[in-house]
Write a structure and sequence with these properties.
By secondary structure, this protein is an alpha/beta fold. The protein has helices at 10-21, 35-41, 61-70, 86-95, 107-118, 135-147, 186-196, 201-210, 215-227, 256-260, and strands at 2-6, 28-32, 49-53, 77-81, 99-102, 151-155, 166-172, 178-185, 240-247, 264-272, 276-284. The chain folds into 2 domains: 2-118, Rossmann fold (3-Layer(aba) Sandwich); 135-284, Chemotaxis protein chec. The strands form 2 sheets. It has a 6-stranded antiparallel sheet with strand order 6-10-11-8-7-9. Helix 1 crosses helix 5 (107-118) and helix 7 packs antiparallel against helix 8. The longest helix is centred in the middle third of the chain and has 13 residues, at 135-147. It starts with a strand and ends with a strand.
């Protein structure tokens, strides 16, 4: 089975394509960076399944599905989406979608959904895998599944220090209200992003030393923090990633006051063998 992956995020296309290639039934993967590109590609690259993002610049994933069905293309179509409302699901299935995979997801989630579809068991919910209940172990499991290598996570007494360059991810709850903040030191942000993008430890070290991330690693880190939406809150409530931002060493975080007043914070030391280590804080608002 050949699969077309349509997403305007290069990092997400890489993640989805990598996971697809680990599924025995998938014989090939083709990529398109927009719905418009997919429409041009399909006549010359026959595929057996389309896996598409919902929100993209230009034509949306839903508009692509509607255009294909209007043109009598019947190839099965699945969504990879951060949207999870019942209204969105109804729109997707009414337009002819076969299944949805909700972000954030692990490789196991995606494989289970694709394999379920192939077995004729498609549905509207994302498969979830059992796992450890300790949050450090949960973070380690999620990150290891994402980067496909062992990740060690242990509890720490303190979070990222101001004298270290940091990245923050801001999360909202289902109502759009402030839910959580993740603060990550740039060295481990660079390590995780480089490993995800299949870049070398030397590249990770170079950007860790600079205190910044180039566009491709910044985009990859966005996907790292998207996956962490599963565990940023201590009550397990599902969150939505709103924004990711980087800050220089010594710079005060705009969220510093909210973090200081937060009812719950948990700190971790995250290590990626060969790539580096750093501190991370998950702050429930």
């Amino acid at each position: 089975m050949r699969v077309l992956v349509v997403d305007d995020s290069r990092a997400m296309r890489m993640i989805v394509s990598r996971e697809l290639r680990s599924i025995d039934a998938v014989s090939g993967v083709v990529e398109a960076d927009s719905a418009e590109a997919a429409i041009e590609l399909l006549p010359v690259e026959p595929v057996d399944l389309i896996l598409c993002d919902w929100n993209m610049g230009g034509m949306s994933g839903l508009e692509l599905l509607e255009a294909l069905r209007a043109a009598e293309w019947t190839v099965p179509f699945g969504f990879v989406t951060s949207e999870s409302s019942e209204a969105m699901q109804r729109s997707a299935f009414a337009a002819g979608a076969a299944f949805l995979v909700a972000k954030p997801f692990t490789g196991a989630d995606l494989a289970a959904k694709i394999e379920g579809f192939l077995a004729g068991q498609s549905g509207a919910t994302t498969a979830t895998s059992g796992g450890p209940t300790d949050r450090a172990a949960m973070v380690a499991s999620l990150l290891a599944s994402l980067v496909r290598m062992p990740v060690a996570v242990v509890h720490a007494a303190e979070g990222p220090a101001r004298q270290v360059a940091r990245w923050t991810a801001d999360y909202a709850d289902a109502s759009g209200d402030d839910a959580a903040i993740c603060v990550v030191e740039t060295p481990i942000a660079s390590a995780l992003s480089a490993a995800l993008t299949l870049m070398s430890p030397a590249v990770a070290a170079e950007w860790a030393e600079s205190g910044t991330l180039p566009d491709i690693l910044s985009e990859s880190f966005h996907e790292v923090t998207n996956v962490l939406a599963k565990v940023v809150r201590t009550d397990g409530e599902r969150c939505i990633l709103r924004s990711v931002a980087g800050f220089a060493a010594g710079e005060k975080l705009p969220e510093a006051d909210r973090i200081a007043a937060a009812p719950s914070s948990e700190h971790f030391q995250v290590s990626l063998a060969g790539y580096g280590a750093g501190l991370m804080s998950l702050v429930t608002l």
